[in-house]
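Handout, tutorial session.
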Amino acid sequence: MRKQILLILMIVDLLGGSPILAYATTFTITVIDLPGAVATAPGALNDVGQIVGQFNDGTRPRGFLRAPDGTFTTIDPPGALGTSLSTINDVGQIVGSFNDGTGTHGFLRAPDGTITTIDVPGAAATSAIAINNTGQIVGQFNDGTSGHSFLRAPDGTITTIDPPGAVNTIPIAINDTEQIVGQFFDGSHRAHGFLRVPDGTFTTIDPPGALATSATTINNTGQIVGHFYFDVSRDTPIHGFLATISQFIPVAIDIRPGSSDNPINSKSKGNIPVAILSSTTFNALREVDIASLSFGRTGNERSLAYCNTSGECDLTDKMGSCPLLVIYHSGISWYLALFYLIYLPTHA
């Protein structure tokens, strides 16, 4: 063990004679090498002090768990020719992937050492990437043509989770409230970050001007960090970002106000009026960020035509207030006859 002291400084105030202390940060560095390993790479650490990672014994990559007292446990699912551990939660559950010669499989290791293989039905390959403290797991599987994300519940139920329009999806992290972040590629092979909330709603995350984005982790307060590029050339610098989830407010809308069935004509080249209704806790005219409004499949469509923000209108909502009337270009959203999304972040 090596103890490293960064700085200890005391300055005497020449005027008053009182000392001014600059406190040092001290820490202890412990080298982690498994006995007999030719390479050791810790990859994740939980709040209990348990560490998981990968090592190579000279024949193949294997997984390991290091306890807070320094004890090592080798982790290899039965039949594994190579093992990779992704992360460990505070309960001691570990997820990772292994190859047994027939393909790649995900797995869950319980604190008692029990290993459960995770294979998405019909998948050519499955990888378990992250687990939260409730036992929910996210990972990726390949169906033979492209990569997809999945969410596995503690009871083993698997749900496919792909942002609309994605041709390849990689989930990277999940917090304890089932908020998931990661990266997806659209049909033009552009990379975007994404957030998926428990009700299944996706939000694309792209810093202004970014050409490629990845959201890499999310904490339990909803803060997201990741990185992005302004250019995808080899020498382009990588930039980091911090995103904080704004308050999500459920709002009522009325498509084509005055009609009885909220119709959307997929062949129409005109405009689609949508009224965003106020409530006792939400004032549509004052609280909606007009610049963020979009009507479409992903929330990124340039579909906004104009809004009535004056409060002068011929209809009132159920609260007796004038709603925010938004007009969208239907020509841009012609393929959305059965699906619509209104993206409504509000001012802080």
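The second record follows below. Compare its token runs with those of the first.
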Amino acid sequence: MADKQSGKRKDKGNPTTRRGAKQRNKNNEQDGNGLGMGNTVGYMVTWTTYGTWLQGDYRGYVKDGEVIKKNEQRLVKEAVRLNITEKQVVRQAIEDEAEKQNVKLDAIAVCSNHVHIVVRYSGCKIEDVVRHFKQAGIAALKKYGMTGKVWTKKYDNRFCFDEKSLQARVAYVNRHNDE
């Protein structure tokens, strides 16, 4: 989150963000990202489908304190919105991949324009876990005829430093399954 006046990020002290986790854990054991993982019990990760969360869209994308103009003209194909069958296919692919990778998946919600997962810390780099899950979803969707980009490149990651925060994230994700 950017400060309106300075344009600088304000999340340094937020322990659930990557930047905040660096600050909080700088004296702990380091993982491959240079982050201290001594207190991490899990993560909530969210990623979006291609073209559904653009800079400058009506939800007010802000970069460096400035609202960015719409980028719809930069899309190389239509935005991806998953239908009910595609959501089920992606969910099953992620669940299968989690088992294959020996990653404990505490919660998953596959929505039409984004995916939420909550996973336990396993010693694996979270970017590798996300990459495997995204690739599994793409491979499964290709079997149903979907081609081209499905996911955005990046993802949002929230660290959970105790069981209470992890269970709060699980509850949040599970509420998405009721929609």
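Points raised in discussion: The beta strands are 42-48, 62-63, 66-67, 105-110, 114-120, 156-160.
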